[in-house]
Specification:
The protein is an alpha+beta fold. It is built from four helices and four strands; from the N terminus they run ααααββββ. Helix 1 crosses helix 2, helix 1 packs across helix 4 and helix 2 packs across helix 4.
Length: 142
């Protein structure tokens, strides 16, 4: 059962985002980016108040994804990425992105915190960061 609502066009939009952010690191990295993205749609806290849809999450400004500014993001979604997007929409989760609302690619080690959020781990080049359950309880409930 889906944890968020998404139209077929939003599934493709999420698929394009996942590819643009992490394709070079494989399916697992794209799934982790998707996991974080679904959490942003689901939650209504901190930087992600009144998001509620995949489209608003992808194009959130400020605070959204930098990859939407790159031509690569605007290429059509492929079957593989669409399947991965559906998987995270249907509730797939894994550490270090299970409760994550943020990630980025540092040039060195992951810092223990980033803008006050605790590091939950690293997958290849991406460091993931989580809010506290007190600040963002919805992300911890599904």
């Amino acid at each position: 059962m889906p944890v968020i609502r998404a139209t077929s066009e939003e599934v493709k939009l999420l698929a394009r985002l996942m590819r643009a952010e992490a394709e070079g690191e494989g399916d697992q990295a794209m799934l982790l980016v998707g996991n974080t993205s679904v959490n942003r749609v689901l939650e209504d806290c901190l930087d992600f108040k009144n998001i509620g849809t995949v489209t608003r999450m992808v194009f959130q400004s400020p605070g959204g994804y930098e990859s939407v500014q790159l031509p690569y993001f605007y290429q059509a979604a492929r079957g593989r990425e669409i399947r991965l997007a559906r998987k995270v929409i249907n509730g797939w989760r894994a550490d270090p992105a299970k409760y994550s609302l943020w990630f980025y690619r540092p040039t060195g080690n992951c810092p223990p915190t980033w803008y006050g959020q605790r590091n939950s781990g690293r997958y290849k080049s991406h460091c993931f960061f989580i809010p506290t359950p007190r600040d963002c309880p919805k992300v911890y409930r599904y």
